[in-house]
Structures are given as C-alpha cells and as structure tokens.
Amino acid sequence: MDITFSNRNTIKISAKSANVVINPEGEAKADLLLYTTPTEIKPGTRAFSSPGEYEVMGCMVDGIPVSEGNTAYSLVVDDVHISYVLDLESTLNDDQIERMDGVDVLIISVKDDKAELMNKIITQIEPRVLIPLVQSDAELAKIKAEFGKDVEAVEKYKVVKKDLPTDSQELVILKS
Prior knowledge:
Layout: E1 2-7, E2 10-14, E3 19-22, E4 32-34, E5 47-48, E6 52-56, E7 59-67, E8 70-77, E9 80-85, H1 94-99, E10 105-110, H2 115-125, E11 129-134, H3 137-147, E12 156-158, E13 170-171
Parallel strand pairs: 3-4, 4-5, 9-10, 10-11, 11-13
Antiparallel strand pairs: 1-2, 1-12, 2-3, 6-7, 7-8, 8-9
C-alpha cells in the first residue's frame, strides 16, 4: 500500500483492497472518502463525515468522535491499522485510546502551539510509524529534533505489514 500527502490535510491511501482519501479538497476519485468534519456528502458516493463503524470493500473504518464536530479515523486496510487524527484540543480518553489500540501508522497534525499535546497523544497511541502533517518548516524541524533524526521527505510511503518496525518508532515525512 502507498500513502501520499496531497495538500494541507489530504491523505491518499492506495491499497489492494481499496483506495481511500481522507479530507479531500474538491473532487476526489476513490473507493472511500473520509472527512474529519461534518460535510455534505454527494449522493452515490462512499463517503463518511461522522463517527461510526463502517466496512467498505474490505476496509474496516472506525470514526471516533474526538471533539465537537471533529472525527478521527482508525481504519484497517490490507491488514495495516492506520489512524488519522487532526486538530485535537486535548489528550485522548480511555475509549478513544482503546479504539486506536494496535495502530501501525499514525497520521497526525502537528502545530507549533500544540507540539507538547501532540507528543502526549503520540505516546498514548504508540504507533509503529508516525507521519506528521506539518504546516511549516519550523514544525518539521521540531518533529525531527524530537525524534533525533534528520529524515528526508518522500513522495509516498510504501507500507507492508511484515516490513513495519517492531522495536522502534519510524518517522516518515511526506512531501506535499
């Protein structure tokens, strides 16, 4: 499966079982569209913008309410457990943590003014791979410093369950 970053908050997951786009801006072609905020869904599309459990083309999706009008997604695609968390205002509660248990890849927004909060959330979830969504070079530098790694940005992250790290956490920076 490939994970790519399209723009500000849009992530594309291209997998064998399904193609998923999270927070698309404008028209997006995919088997499944997920929106973190309430969005008017075009009739005839496989799209969700609210909490709930869904199954589409073998892709298991859990929309988790994280704040008023903000849904995080935890999904399993091709046996890889991915969570997408955007713009949190507080750490996760026990139910939210339980629903994200066993996350392989965490995609999370990281903003300068909330870097400490994001670090706490990352610690709560303990993903094997972290993909931060950053908006500035300063935010990126801070994440790299936290990890003690100078990671080169890549166009796409190829992930296979058997190749995920088991004894450390990997940092992946996606180019926009």
